[in-house]
Amino acid sequence: TYEIEKVSTQELMDLFNVHCLGVVRTVQATLTYLRNSTNPRIINLSSRLGSLSKMSSGEFAKGKFSYSYRIAKAAQNMLTLCLDQELGDIPISITAIHPGKLQTSSGAYDANMRPEDAATNIYSWLLNSKRDISGKFFEPLVTEMNW
């Protein structure tokens, strides 16, 4: 069977609700606080699976990754770019990050990082990052990623 045959529209709606609409609701609820912050930041926890560049290169062709998850994360990445372009006058730093290929119960076949190591990388990266990370996609302490 093909992965497309396994997709349910309910699953797609649920993941879109979490990964994209959840971000929209959070930004709307906190925008006043972000405007008044001395160091306003939005860090969207994305995934390499939301990268259109990686997808189009064929990197995930053998992974049998969820359509729903990849679509929801790609939408979240687009939202990151939209927010960066619209809210830049605050000024605010808006960034998407891929935490790494995490070794979890739902981790990918090529997972190679413990979640606690990813959290440490993200924390260290955030402490040392500047405004120039806005509108970009990173794997913290590893590389800037292509959208």
Describe this structure in words.
By secondary structure, the chain is an alpha/beta fold. It has one domain (about 5-140): 3-Layer(aba) Sandwich (Rossmann fold), CATH 3.40.50. Helix content is about 45%, strand content about 10%. It is built from 4 helices and 4 strands; from the N terminus they run αβααβαββ. Strands 1-2-3-4 form a 4-stranded mixed β-sheet, with helices on one face. Helix 1 (about 10-35) packs parallel to helix 3 (about 65-85). The longest helix has 28 residues, at about 10-35. The two termini are about 30 Å apart. The mean pLDDT is about 90.
Output the keywords.
single chain, 147 residues, alpha/beta, Rossmann fold, 4 strands, 46% helix, globular
Strand portion:
5-15%
Q: What name does the CATH topology carry? A: Rossmann fold
Any idea what the CATH architecture is? 3-Layer(aba) Sandwich
Helix content: 40-55%
Multimerization status? single chain
Overall mean pLDDT? 92
What's the β-strand tally? Answer: 4
> What is the CATH C-level name?
Alpha Beta
Q: What is the count of DSSP helices, taking H or I runs of 4+ residues? A: 4
Q: What is the approximate shape?
A: globular
